[in-house]
Each structure stands twice: as structure tokens, then as C-alpha cells.
Specification:
It is a single chain. By secondary structure, the protein is mostly helical. It has one domain. It is 66% helix and 0% strand. The protein has three helices and no strands. The radius of gyration is 17 Å and the shape is elongated.
Length: 64
């Protein structure tokens, strides 16, 4: 799988759980993405694309 592939995450919820989640979080998909990004930020683990970008910036800075 290449660096630009996306992953799909499925969560099995009952209708009651879904409705309750929608009441407290109008955008549950956005909320999940935010939680994942926050977890990665707090853990210090950068996604591979971000690491590659940082390495490219660093190597260009050294070349200058």
C-alpha cells in the first residue's frame, strides 16, 4: 500500500447508541478524527506523511 492510501474505519453501533452519540456530538465522524489526531499529537507519534514532510524540510534546510 502506498503512502497516499486511505483507511476506512467502521464502528458497529446500535441505533440507540448512534442517536445518543448524535445528541452529544452533532458531527461524530469529525469528533472521531479529532480524537485520533489529539491522541497522535499527545503520544508524539507523527503519521508517516508528516514525518516524510519534516524529513524533506530538514534535508532542504541542510542543503541551503
Amino acid at each position: 500500500m502506498d503512502k497516499h492510501s486511505s483507511r476506512f474505519l467502521a464502528v458497529n453501533l446500535t441505533e440507540a447508541e448512534w442517536q445518543a452519540l448524535r445528541e452529544v456530538t452533532p458531527d461524530p465522524c469529525g469528533w472521531i478524527k479529532t480524537q485520533i489526531r489529539r491522541l497522535l499529537d499527545e503520544s508524539g507519534v507523527a503519521p508517516a506523511a508528516a514525518r516524510d514532510e519534516q524529513e524533506n524540510l530538514f534535508s532542504h534546510a541542510l542543503a541551503d
